[in-house]
């Protein structure tokens, strides 16, 4: 069995730095019972381009305290402690690169019950090509890790309630997901089946609003960093004038696209294998370039949003992939989580990482950096089913 000692080296010209911060939203009281009436406290990790790390060592993939918090959720209990020994390619709190006066900004959102570093390979890849990438933590719905040493696990009682609701509506969900996999559907049928499967979980539809508000709060933080109101090395270094890209995996993917519908500071968005909970609400207007990246598990669930977006829209499905293949686990965890193989597909983890990295980078290059992205014109991968709808 192969042992993973380090993440793959990113392919871009920059090396990678990161900072771990948190900000309190004084305008919102956290609705979680475990928050005890305190204001919403949002942790973030900022990955950014650097020139040289000096004599520092790269960070480890996961802190032991955060692994302990993660293991409170049964899905992750098989992860061995050795995950905390894996080297990343990121160096903490080193100076920002001086090779550019400003860098474009992307905002990432983790999956439900997950953690901010779940896609570190992708974060490092994007950063190495000159992006500043901000991963937003969503407390109580994922592991919230803070720079002062706090590590807050998922609210298990809330998850139990969500699981109970999900089981009660599983037949409705499964029936409509199966119908959406067909290729002969009318627009009316796509609309009906999408509404049926999303409305099977009212709690998930309601909760996504909190995540959208988290994202929009952090957008305000970034503006204050750029202006110098919040003092940091990022003052006058964030290229916000062309807009910010937003993306996420699973539940974070849905929250990302919904935030893009509401906030003009967001130029484009990517949903990585997430059900679009809350997305049928009429307040969301799909008028931004969007990429939907689906696994082989639930083909068709993004159809409605692909067809009804009023701007350039792309959809890929990676054959042989499953939900957790869209995370670092496809690279580091298939060797460990054999009992959870129903969450991993047969695709090779390294190939999965390459395809994901290539498409995410290409999309943001086109719509944030506004440079050519040949991958969005011609798909070179036999493993990828690719379609697009472009608007003049």
Describe this structure in words.
The structure is a single chain. The chain has helices at residues 64-70, 120-128, 156-168, 170-180, 187-198, 202-227, 251-262, 303-308, 329-332, 349-369, and strands at 15-29, 39-50, 90-92, 103-109, 132-136, 144-145, 151-152, 238-239, 244-249, 266-272, 290-294, 313-318, 384-389. It is an alpha/beta fold. Strands 1, 2, 3, 4, 5, 8, 9, 10, 11, 12 and 13 form an eleven-stranded mixed β-sheet that branches. It is globular and about 60 Å long. The mean pLDDT is 93.
Shape, principal axes of CA atoms: globular
Order of helices and strands: EEHEEHEEEHHHHEEHEEHEHHE
Oligomer: single chain
- The helix count comes to 10
Strand portion, in percent?
15-25%
Q: Helix/strand/pairing class, anyone?
A: alpha/beta
**What is the count of β-strands?**
13
**Terminal Cα separation, in Å?**
51 Å
Helix content: 25-40%
Which regions are unreliable across 5 or more consecutive residues at pLDDT < 50? none
Mean pLDDT comes to: 93
Radius of gyration: 20 Å
Q: Major β-sheet, in short?
A: 11 strands, mixed
In short:
This protein has 392 residues and is an alpha/beta fold.
Question: What's the layout of helices and strands?
Answer:
Blueprint: E1 15-29, E2 39-50, H1 64-70, E3 90-92, E4 103-109, H2 120-128, E5 132-136, E6 144-145, E7 151-152, H3 156-168, H4 170-180, H5 187-198, H6 202-227, E8 238-239, E9 244-249, H7 251-262, E10 266-272, E11 290-294, H8 303-308, E12 313-318, H9 329-332, H10 349-369, E13 384-389
Parallel strand pairs: 1-3, 4-5, 4-8, 4-9, 9-10, 10-11, 11-12
Antiparallel strand pairs: 1-2, 2-5, 6-7, 12-13
Helix pairs in contact: 2-10, 4-5, 6-7
